[in-house]
Design goal:
Length: 274
């Protein structure tokens, strides 16, 4: 894939965003999935050791992330062979615009044959579902980077929904996306997939996303089985069960700022579906 179709192009110490990173709220700001994918790219590589599996990734969006070159400063908070904590900050110039923490855990063969896990129904496989799309088709953004299959629910109505995502673009230049990057770039869509507010007098935007994984995603498809809550106090929560085609892989959650549509124009006003 040519570098100009990736989310970011590396230029020395900077990561230059392409138009594919654009979000729905502001044409000059990135979608949260773009910096989330970039943090995944950096933190799964940083300070390599036996604790290599990213079991938790939290991305905090401190302010709108601009369509401008970003530099990433990473550090190890707590080294360890079994458990390792990392932290990274994204800067646009001298301004910190986003921050992330990652918990990395060592992987080892363990006999868990007598363990008991919740019974989870895997959504209908993406190969059995017709293609689906959302977004302003005349504008390129993060909605352009994913192949979609709507397994349940209705994108145009409020309430739970389940959508399969397949990332079509690399995160950085010509480097194939890792399983973690595939999850990170789509997890931020959860508040839209299972929006409790679509076509109401309020809308919600997430200030962060936290991803928990208990195993790596297998294959190219990641499914978000999402739902959400919106409180009259102006605070909400979106949560997504994460799947690959073999079964559940983890969960994601997002804290939401809920506002009247007279304060913030809903992203759906710019979107079409087909």
């Amino acid at each position: 894939m040519p570098p100009d179709t990736a989310l970011f192009h590396r230029d020395g110490e900077s990561f230059v965003p392409s138009e594919y990173t654009r979000g729905p709220w502001d044409p000059n700001a990135q979608h949260g999935g773009a910096p989330s994918g970039l943090f995944a790219y950096v933190l799964e590589r940083y300070d390599p050791g036996p604790a290599s599996f990213v079991a938790r990734l939290t991305v905090e969006l401190l302010r709108p992330v601009p369509m401008a070159p970003l530099t990433i400063a990473a550090r190890t908070i707590r080294p360890g062979r079994k458990v390792q904590w990392l932290e990274a900050s994204a800067f646009a110039g001298d301004v910190e615009v986003a921050r992330a923490t990652a918990l990395r855990v060592r992987e080892a063969e363990v006999d868990v044959r007598d363990s008991v896990s919740p019974v989870v129904d895997t959504p209908m496989p993406p190969a059995e579902i017709e293609p689906f799309s959302f977004g302003p088709h005349d504008v390129v953004g993060m909605w352009s980077t994913q192949e979609l299959r709507l397994a349940s629910g209705n994108w145009m109505e409020a309430g739970p929904a389940t959508i399969w995502f397949r990332l079509l673009n690399n995160v950085v230049d010509d480097e194939a996306p890792s399983p973690l990057q595939r999850v990170a770039t789509c997890a931020d869509f959860g508040s839209g997939v299972g929006s409790p507010l679509r076509s109401t007098k309020a809308t919600g935007i997430n200030a962060e996303v936290t991803i928990h994984l208990h195993r790596p995603a297998v294959g190219e498809w990641v499914c978000l089985e999402s739902s959400g809550f919106a409180g009259s106090n102006g605070v909400g929560l979106a949560e997504s069960r994460l799947h690959d085609e073999a079964g559940p892989i983890g969960r994601a959650a997002q804290s939401l700022l809920v506002e009247s549509i007279t304060v913030r124009q809903p992203p759906g006003s710019r979107f079409e579906t087909s």
